[in-house]
Amino acid sequence: MPRTWPRCVNGLVVAPSLLAADFGRLAEAVHGLEGGGADRLHIDVMDGDFVPNFTFGTDTLRALRGETDLPFEVHLMIREPERHLGTFAEAGADAMTVHWEACPHLHRTLTTIRGLGCRAGGALNVSTPAECLYDVLDVMDLALVMTVDPGFGGQSLIPRALAKVAALRREIDAQGVEVELEVDGGVEAHNAALCAQAGATVLVAGTAVFGDPAGPAHGVQRLLEVAAPLR
After folding, report:
1. pLDDT per residue over 25-55, tens digit each?
2. Domains of the chain by residue range
3. Looking at the domain 13-230, which fold is it?
4. Phi and psi at residue 167, in whole multiples of 5°?
């Protein structure tokens, strides 16, 4: 892979979501995470169509790529993501996650991502059953379960979504595949342990990291402190 993929802390990784950072000081936000326990960055790309918001694009990736060696986990919340995979790979993505709901040929899209030298992820919205990813786990590196309705940061985690995390954990283990299991949305110190108990190995966290009064590095360590022992 383009950059060394993150280690786990007792089987758990925190991926800070730049959606909650100060957009006018992104480089500073990234620098504040280096060496602070965050071994990757979660970058949400929204098109205003698949989800009701606009966020980062390839220009942002290129600018940040010159600021850090942290791996970029790019979450493509866009329609027809297969049209743009090469552009995001060229801009500096190390992993790309696409949504089942946006990809009629998900197997092909995932294998294309891998062919570009990136890790491939498949994501499910809250109302989409876990079974939709079962037949493509063998061509994935990451399974992402949305625990909020996508589009905006600062939402509360939907507890029922954790049952889907548990179902995917069982299926990943049953198939014997090496797939990270990620939760995205509303992850905070008070529910991070529940995510880990359900089987998650990656916690995407925005507000809990960048809204921490002691700084983003402390926010990452706090989540690891409460959740990693339970993995």
Report:
1. 999 999 989 888 788 999 999 999 999 889 9
2. 13-230
3. TIM Barrel (3.20.20)
4. -65, -45
